[in-house]
Amino acid sequence: MHAPAPHPRKSFFLGMRLFLPVAISIASYGVVWGVLAGQAGLTPLEVVLMSGLVYAGASQFVAIDMWSPLSLPVASIVVATAVINLRMLLMTATLRPQFEHLPRWRALLAMFLVSDEVWAMTMAEHAKGGGGATFMLGAGTLAWIGWVGSTLTGRMLGAVIDDPTAYGLDFAFTATFLALLLSMWKGRGDLVPWLAGGAIAIGVSMLVPGTWYIIAGGLGGSLLGAFLQHRMRDAA
Fold it and tell me: Largest Cα–Cα distance in the chain?
């Protein structure tokens, strides 16, 4: 017999509670982005609007690196951020079974709150028999609040924290994803596609300019993992 599904409200707050440590990590590199945004000339209102409406950490770092108020390369920023966010098509597709009971328009709106960290935690919880739409919404809501609040904080503190690397805040982004990888570890079978994805990303970053290494590493590791899993099923 299956355990009864938790009440939506309990699932929502469970998602928030379990996501809290990750939200703290997100806030740390959100402060970094806020500092960089201030140095690029964005006002506090512009920081809140970009973080709240775009809500894409990695893409926002790329965009702020390309930001030039005197001659804003809008087309280049749109293309670069679109390439980086292509991974969201695959990630949100894996969440579809958990949102089938909702009207399509509500499910589509909920996808706005999906981020790498929220997706990873939701899938990890789902593998344990939990997770679900309300769990993801709880984690996603906390992530959104943490990101917008921390980027604004960084913008307001920009005059004090002029060099984020001096405080070690530049490593927060990397540390967050390392923690997520460890939480999703299922055994030695994960090692090969993870290493392959990392090797592909490093190779592409050395050979191809831009951020294509993100897509190449993600797709390469995913395809290899799917291939190995298929072979294991055939062998069984």
Answer: 64
